[in-house]
Structures are given as structure tokens and as C-alpha cells.
């Protein structure tokens, strides 16, 4: 028995007359659009309904479902989205949790974890009296299909402090973007698909639990969202105001970082 689908998570509910074709736990084969067979994927036949209550003494009724998950395969992801820009935003939301991102203490320093590049205000409805108010609480990564980053770091000893204490200066950079138009809404209003660079300095400590790095990063090329409060961005969008009018705080260029273990 075979089936085809353009989704990244394929489920096939077997009709009652076909229940005997698949036993629980049977192996399932998967062929991707590029001709591959999926590698390490979750492929299984599973039970999706259980027996009736013991009181009615009815025979056990079990339906079976074949599931093939290929959530980390780009080729399958691309096939999943039609050439319809009206659905591109929904596709990007699906990528948010598992898609590439950059930023953090062991990546591109100066940015919070996963918040370099595409991101959106984290919108929430808050109960205020008898009404709901839309508010923004920070940012969430918007993901992408491609990611590149680099780190250049110069480590120096601190004179008179021994071999376990030193300092470092660095230059980090990275970019997260979507190279397929079916995942991209084509509007980079927040200027987030380009390369970003950060620099800074810190202290290295060789401790019994490993290397400890603390320091301060500085965003050399921030976007508007890197410098503006998410609430201010939301108000500008709701009021149809140019984003350039939003207050951009230069203090947001600075970010403290702390990391355990060496990055190199």
C-alpha cells in the first residue's frame, strides 16, 4: 500500500477494511522528493484509538495510522509549500521552532539567544477589565532556511595573573535568511535578512569545571528591532507610523554574555 503527500508530517488513517494491511509497530518506508529515503526519521504504524469500556463487553476497536515525519528535511519542506505567497507567512511560523537561527553567548555575541536576524514582536492578549488588549513582550525568532556565522577571537594572558586567567577580544558575524521564495513573503520591512556583526571583549577563567567566559558584546550593525522596544514597534504598526519614528535606544547595542566551555 502506498500514499503520496506534500506535507512534512504524513498521516494515513486506515479504513476498517484495510486494518489488516498494517500491524502496530510495522516498518514504514519513505521516499522524499529528491529520491532519498529519509535517513533517520520517525516512521511507524501506531494506534490512534483504544478499546471501548469494559462494561459494554464489545470487541476491541482499534484503528491504525501510518505516520512519517520528516521535519528536518529541507527538500520535503519546500515541496510542502505551494507557490502561493498568501501562505508564506504561515510556513515561516512552522519553521520558527526548528529552523536555523543565530545569536547567543556561544554564537554571535552581542545578540540574545536565537535573536540575530529575522524576528517578530512576541504578541500577547492581556485581560484588562472586561476587554482584551494586544501587547508585545520582547521578540521571538522568525527562523529561516539558511544560516551562516563566524567568530574571530584573539586571546591574551593577563600579566601577573597566572595561566588560569586571561582576556579575549572578538569579532562575530552571522546571517539567517530564506532563499526559497515560497517561504518568503518578499517584504523585509525590518531589514533583518542581511549580515550582522558584533564585537566585544571579556575575561577567560580556567576553572575545575572547565573554561568560563564572561564579557560584553556590542552590536556593530543592529536592525531597528535590535534597538527598539517591541511595544513601541507594535504601536507604530497599529498606528500605521513609519518605523523610523520609533525610539531606538543605543544602549541596546550592548549585551552581557556568559558561557561555559570553549567555543573553539
Brief descriptors of the model:
single chain, 264 residues, mainly beta, 2 domains, 5-stranded antiparallel β-sheet, 4 helices, 10 strands, 11% helix
What does this structure look like?
By secondary structure, the protein is mostly beta strands. The protein has two domains: 9-77, no CATH class; 100-260, no CATH class. Helix content is 11%, strand content 35%. The protein has a five-stranded antiparallel β-sheet, with no helix packed on it. The longest helix is centred in the last third of the chain and has 9 residues, at 230-238. It is extended, with a radius of gyration of 25 Å. The protein starts with 8 loop residues before the first strand and ends with a strand. The model is unreliable at 38-83 (pLDDT under 50).
Amino acid at each position: 500500500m502506498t500514499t503520496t503527500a506534500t506535507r512534512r508530517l504524513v498521516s494515513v488513517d486506515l479504513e476498517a477494511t484495510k486494518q489488516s494491511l498494517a500491524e502496530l509497530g510495522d516498518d514504514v518506508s519513505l521516499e522524499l522528493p529528491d529520491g532519498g529515503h529519509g535517513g533517520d526519521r520517525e516512521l511507524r504504524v501506531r494506534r490512534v484509538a483504544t478499546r471501548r469500556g469494559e462494561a459494554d463487553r464489545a470487541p476491541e476497536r482499534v484503528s491504525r495510522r501510518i505516520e512519517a515525519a520528516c521535519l528536518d528535511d529541507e527538500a520535503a519542506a519546500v515541496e510542502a509549500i505551494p507557490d502561493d505567497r498568501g501562505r508564506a507567512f504561515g510556513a515561516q511560523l512552522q519553521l520558527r521552532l526548528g529552523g536555523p537561527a543565530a545569536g547567543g553567548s556561544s554564537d554571535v555575541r552581542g545578540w540574545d539567544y536565537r535573536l540575530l536576524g529575522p524576528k517578530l514582536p512576541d504578541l500577547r492578549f492581556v485581560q484588562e477589565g472586561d476587554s482584551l488588549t494586544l501587547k508585545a513582550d520582547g521578540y521571538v525568532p522568525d527562523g529561516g532556511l539558511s544560516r551562516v556565522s563566524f567568530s574571530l577571537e584573539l586571546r591574551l594572558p593577563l600579566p601577573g595573573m597566572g595561566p588560569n586567567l586571561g582576556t579575549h577580544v572578538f569579532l562575530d558575524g552571522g546571517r539567517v535568511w530564506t532563499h526559497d521564495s515560497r517561504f518568503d513573503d518578499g517584504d523585509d520591512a525590518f531589514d533583518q535578512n542581511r549580515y550582522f556583526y558584533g564585537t566585544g571583549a571579556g575575561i577567560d577563567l580556567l576553572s575545575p569545571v572547565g573554561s568560563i567566559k564572561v564579557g560584553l558584546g556590542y552590536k556593530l550593525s543592529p536592525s531597528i528591532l535590535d534597538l527598539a522596544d517591541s511595544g513601541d514597534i507594535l504601536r507604530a504598526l497599529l498606528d500605521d507610523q513609519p518605523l523610523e519614528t520609533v525610539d531606538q535606544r543605543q544602549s541596546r547595542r550592548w549585551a552581557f554574555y556568559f558561557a561555559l566551555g570553549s567555543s573553539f
